[in-house]
């Protein structure tokens, strides 16, 4: 079928360019100008051979072919004006029809190739997620549904009381009213697992701002308890913060690791203010997963998350009203051009992480920003400063690490 499209497309293009070449030859007054009439024909013959050889259907060549044809049309009209001769409208009509067919067939082929790539990306995203994510857990052991429910409830109840610039008395009053919700949150952090499964996708759906809000509620509770001299309450909330981060690191997309570092920093800053005794430190010991140990999985899942989302775009565009097909064709071209570069970069990032050469990841990403549309957005999730932040967080947490046998979890 591809060969048939190629043949029909190239025949139309050949006819149109040949017709214009005849008109050019008739209007040209010198041998040099007449010789130029053979250039477009030779170019079309070359494009025909390339497209038939590689089954491209001129997908990546039709903009250049259209540009050359447009220049040729303008040259023909200019010759007509200079020599005051009538150019038949037939060659121009044939050219217009053939260029429209060229654009339509090329767009169709682009969309077909993008749809095939999208199907493959969706499958590969699911395979990566299956490999990197923990196994499914029973509903009564999964904290994720509770987090979703509590985040919405607390956000609606607290309004702006938990913002960083909120007055202390406002935060205190809001937390007092949410005492039962905070207790439910602490109980949720004690569940053995947290799995953000998606019904419509093989890649987990996780709302990271909700985790930030939950962590803020626990942190504010801990700070208020420290001010009030309630050390046991403060330690309970700090422990809940660490448990919350441990749940979140089980779904290690890059954004989740950012939030894990933020949540653990809140807990460790609160501990520094509390100045815990040796026995209190002992009570907080646990088998906390180091962020550094999850970076490779994070890059793999980030890739799965991104390509899974990108794979859904061609179908969404196809369902929109786009009679000319410009949006779909443009996105398809970008998808086919940039996604292989993105995947190659992410696979290199996994290798660099394993070698503890994180700094090179940002350098490689900066090189891909030029000349690409999607890549700057896709590669924005890993700023150059992150490796140092994660390393510092892991180092600060080391005094609270314990062996699995002695962990109270």
List the helices and strands and how they pair.
Layout: H1 2-27, H2 31-36, H3 38-54, H4 62-83, H5 89-132, H6 144-158, H7 168-177, H8 179-189, H9 208-227, H10 231-248, H11 254-274, H12 278-283, H13 295-319, H14 326-354, H15 359-368, H16 375-378, H17 386-397
Helix pairs in contact: 1-3, 1-4, 1-5, 4-5, 5-13, 5-14, 6-8, 6-9, 8-10, 9-10, 9-11, 10-11, 11-13, 11-17, 13-14, 14-15
Key structural traits:
3 domains; 0% strand; disordered C terminus; 409 residues; mainly alpha; 72% helix
Instruction: Write down the Rg.
Output: 31 Å
Structural class: mainly alpha
- Average pLDDT, to the nearest integer? 75
Largest sheet: none
Task: Give the topology string: H per helix, E per strand.
Answer: HHHHHHHHHHHHHHHHH
What is the overall shape? elongated
Q: pLDDT below 50 for ≥5 consecutive residues: which ranges?
A: 52-60, 404-409
Q: What share of the residues lie within helices?
A: over 70%
* Count of the separate structural domains: 3
Compute the number of strand runs. Answer: 0
Termini, distance in Å? Answer: 61 Å
Question: In a few lines, what is going on in this structure?
Answer:
With 409 residues, the chain is mainly alpha-helical. The chain has 17 helices and no strands. Mean pLDDT is 75; it is low at 52-60 and 404-409.
Question: What does this entry look like structurally?
Answer:
The protein is an all-alpha fold and 409 residues long. It has three domains: 2-106; 136-289, no CATH class; 297-384. It has helices at residues 2-27, 31-36, 38-54, 62-83, 89-132, 144-158, 168-177, 179-189, 208-227, 231-248, 254-274, 278-283, 295-319, 326-354, 359-368, 375-378, 386-397. Helix 4 runs antiparallel to helix 5, helix 5 runs antiparallel to helix 13 and helix 9 (208-227) packs parallel to helix 11. The model is unreliable at 52-60 and 404-409 (pLDDT under 50).
